[in-house]
């Protein structure tokens, strides 16, 4: 807020050091729009400059201190007053005093822990941001800059298939199988449905991916279900002994990794829902949870410019380094 | 030099289907016809009955073919029994047509040919939807309705087991 003609005012903005080369990713905002933000990983250093620009150069600008904070917080939409901060770092840039000209301050948050992935959902938001503040007597001047954090994983050691026989006694028996229980975001679900007994008139069968966001604890638990995908795998009536294949490419759908009990505040889980529909529009279904994880990008072995930057990017993060090494191994 | 990993999308192994299963008759055959409306009685005690013929190969039904005569109130009885005892959402019956039963109508009221035909179609749709429901197939009332000569309203409700 500036007082017209009265005294001095200033603008504040934040610029990251590697803004030119740093990768940006798209992330949904609360009102559904998509914006691009700088991408960071766990353990990466966050450094840059805070520019304080005086509106009237030459005139004195008094302030009660200039600082920059790096914050990671969880916001529950139904409880906006309370932000749950799980990362909170602060760097003082200037002690209370005055500025006579515009000034730039360097800052560095070294090897910052970013334990969770950025998430914008139906009832909850997890975000990371830098906030630069000029404290003043009447009103502070602040500027926020959101960043996006991705959490990477490696190929899980144990990844058993899901195989089960289900049905309605004497009416419908099927055996379904999915090749894995843990899939990365660009993976393919390969499976099959085997019909052991069919005494109802089936019209078609589909597989749905359902995302369930759970917020709250104890008696106040909210579940938000969202059907991310519907994929028809069979059209027509099967008979005993038929096998229907499933091949569902996940890369085409907007999904996040599975998030379990994040900071004891919320969870995001994914389910495969196998649905059979009969000629009277009756639905028979079987839901099965799958774990989704995010794979690090593959890096070329030759030490190109990109590889040099990428390996710098993962500096200091044990998990991310392991993910890179694993990805390199797998691609050989 | 590394290339992006190609996803393994090969089908999972499955047993080849037996040809007798592949070309055999489907085991879900169930057809119920509601037809041949007959108006019985005279004057104010008239009522209409319909023939309900069922053909099926589902093992839960004792008779593979059956033929009975039922009237509208029998269908209402079946609907009430199922609403009380089974967990299914019972589909609606065609209307009761109380207005048609009032005196001083210009037409035949509930014995009007077009009305009977409309009702016959609605009853056929109703019984087919119910009989195909796996949860309704367990109910004694449904089996009695479809396959016994007359409905014993003092029967003991319960479930049918194969």
TrEMBL record, chain A:
Pfam families: Vps26. Keywords: Protein transport, Transport. It comes from the Eukaryota. One of its GO terms (biological process) is intracellular protein transport. InterPro entries: Arrestin-like_C (IPR014752), Vps26-related (IPR028934). The keyword Plastid does not apply. Belongs to the VPS26 family. This is Vacuolar protein sorting 26 homolog B, like. It comes from Paramormyrops kingsleyae.
Automatic annotation (TrEMBL), chain B:
CDD domains: PX_SNX12. Keywords: Acetylation, Lipid-binding, Phosphoprotein, Protein transport, Transport. SUPFAM superfamilies: PX domain. GO terms for biological process: endocytic recycling; late endosome to Golgi transport; protein transport; regulation of protein metabolic process; regulation of protein transport. Gene3D superfamilies: Phox-like domain (3.30.1520.10). InterPro entries: PX_dom, PX_dom_sf, Sorting_Nexin. Pfam families: PX. Belongs to the sorting nexin family. GO terms for cellular component: early endosome membrane; retromer complex. Residues 1-24 are annotated as: Disordered. It comes from the Eukaryota. This is Sorting nexin 12. It comes from Paramormyrops kingsleyae. Residues 28-152 form the PX domain. The keyword Disulfide bond does not apply.
């Amino acid at each position: 807020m500036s007082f017209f003609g009265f005294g001095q005012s200033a603008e504040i903005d934040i610029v990251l050091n590697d803004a030119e080369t740093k990768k940006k990713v798209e992330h949904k905002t609360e009102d559904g729009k998509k914006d691009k933000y700088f991408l960071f990983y766990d353990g990466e250093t966050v450094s840059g400059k805070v520019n304080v620009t005086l509106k009237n150069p030459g005139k004195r600008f008094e302030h009660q201190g200039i600082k920059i904070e790096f914050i990671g917080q969880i916001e529950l939409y139904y409880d906006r007053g309370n932000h749950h901060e799980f990362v909170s770092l602060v760097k003082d840039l200037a002690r209370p005093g005055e500025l006579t000209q515009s000034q730039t301050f360097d800052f560095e948050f070294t090897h910052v822990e970013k334990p969770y992935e950025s998430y914008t959902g139906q009832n909850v938001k997890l975000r990371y941001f830098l906030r630069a503040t000029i404290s003043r007597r009447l009103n502070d001047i602040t500027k926020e800059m959101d960043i996006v954090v991705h959490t990477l994983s490696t190929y899980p050691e144990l990844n058993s298939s899901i195989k089960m026989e289900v049905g309605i006694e004497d009416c419908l028996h099927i055996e379904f199988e999915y090749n894995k229980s843990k899939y990365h975001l660009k993976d393919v679900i390969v499976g099959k449905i085997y019909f052991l007994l069919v005494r109802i008139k089936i019209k078609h069968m589909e597989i749905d991916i359902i995302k369930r966001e759970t917020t709250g604890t104890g008696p106040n638990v909210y579940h938000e279900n969202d059907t991310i995908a519907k994929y028809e795998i069979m059209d027509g009536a099967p008979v005993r002994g038929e096998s229907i294949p499933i091949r569902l490419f996940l890369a085409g759908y907007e999904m996040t990794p599975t998030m379990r009990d994040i900071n004891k505040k919320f969870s995001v889980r994914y389910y495969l829902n196998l649905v059979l529909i009969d000629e009277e529009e009756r639905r028979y279904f079987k839901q099965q949870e799958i774990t989704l994880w995010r794979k690090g990008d593959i890096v070329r072995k030759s030490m190109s410019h990109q590889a040099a930057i990428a390996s710098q990017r993962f500096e200091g993060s044990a998990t991310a380094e392991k993910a890179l090494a694993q990805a390199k191994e797998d691609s050989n | 030099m590394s290339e992006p990993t190609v996803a393994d999308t090969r089908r999972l192994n499955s047993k080849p289907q037996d040809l007798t299963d592949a070309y055999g008759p489907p085991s879900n055959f169930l057809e119920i016809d509601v037809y041949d409306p007959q108006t019985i009685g005279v004057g104010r005690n008239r009522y209409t009955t319909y023939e309900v013929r069922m053909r099926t190969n589902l093992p839960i039904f004792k008779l593979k073919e059956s033929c009975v005569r039922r009237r509208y109130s029998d269908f209402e009885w079946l609907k009430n029994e199922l609403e009380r005892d089974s967990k299914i959402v019972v589909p609606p019956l065609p209307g009761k047509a109380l207005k048609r039963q009032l005196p001083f109508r210009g037409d035949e009221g509930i014995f009007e040919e077009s009305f009977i035909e409309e009702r016959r179609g609605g009853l056929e749709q109703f019984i087919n939807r119910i009989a195909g429901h796996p949860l309704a197939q367990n109910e004694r009332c449904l089996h009695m309705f479809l396959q016994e000569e007359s409905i014993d309203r003092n029967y003991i409700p319960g479930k049918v087991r194969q």
